[in-house]
Structure formats: structure tokens, C-alpha cells
Design goal:
30% strand, 30% helix, alpha/beta, two-stranded antiparallel ribbon, 131 residues
Length: 131
């Protein structure tokens, strides 16, 4: 696994500004960047022409609220489809729960409220969090 998955958020059918910033941060690593989008029901998503994206992957979710298990499974599918070694998501309550759950189920690291990403000399991800 070598790439980065950015899990995008949409507002009114358009990718939001935070997603664009996450793509910029991911692209700075010099590794492939995939944009993963959860599509609710029959909604359409535009505004995905963002510099730095190598691949876009959408996962259609049911129109009805199916609880936490469906988005958690969809996130795991996005990670599998993109072979991501890092996942970037907006800092929201839902994203924090999904990210922590994914990390726990796969025995991976997890950091929330990250303000900067870097790689050390060995290629390991180093995060900066506010105090």
C-alpha cells in the first residue's frame, strides 16, 4: 500500500473546500492520491476536478439512514479498492468515529485533529496536532 485516500465531503452536490485542502496535503507527499466519495441515494457529485487527484472512487450508500455499519463498511471498501496506506478525512464527529473504527479493526494508527502532515526520512507519516 503506497497511496493516500482522501474521503471527500460534499455540500449541495459539490466537493467542499476542506476536501480540496486535504487533497492538496495528500498530493504534497508525492504518492498517488485517490478521492473517495460517499454518494447518498441518487445524488450526483460535481466539482471533483481537483489538481492532485489520481483516481476517484465512489461508493453509493442507501437513501435511508442505515446507521454506523454501512458507512464503516463503505470506508473499508474504499481503503481496499485504493490500496491506501493513509486515509485523510475532515475533522467531524462522524469521520472521527469511522477513522477510529477502521484503525482499530485493522490494527492501524489513528490521529485526529491533525494540522500538518510530513514524512520522515524512512517514509513514515509524521502528524502535527494542536495542543
Amino acid at each position: 500500500m503506497t497511496g493516500t485516500l482522501v474521503v471527500g465531503r460534499c455540500e449541495a452536490g459539490r466537493v467542499d473546500e476542506t476536501t480540496r485542502r486535504l487533497v492538496t496535503a495528500a498530493a504534497a507527499s508525492g504518492r498517488p492520491v485517490s478521492l473517495g466519495i460517499f454518494i447518498n441515494g441518487s445524488a450526483e457529485v460535481g466539482g471533483t476536478a481537483i489538481a492532485g487527484i489520481d483516481r476517484i472512487v465512489g461508493i453509493q450508500l442507501p437513501e435511508v439512514d442505515a446507521g454506523h455499519d454501512v458507512p464503516a463498511h463503505a470506508l473499508a471498501m474504499l481503503v481496499d479498492r485504493t490500496a491506501a496506506s493513509a486515509v485523510l478525512m475532515s475533522f467531524t464527529t462522524e469521520a472521527t468515529a469511522l477513522g477510529a473504527g477502521l484503525a482499530q479493526s485493522r490494527d492501524l494508527g489513528f490521529a485526529s485533529d491533525v494540522v500538518a502532515l510530513n514524512r520522515d526520512d524512512d517514509g513514515a507519516i509524521v502528524v502535527t496536532r494542536p495542543i
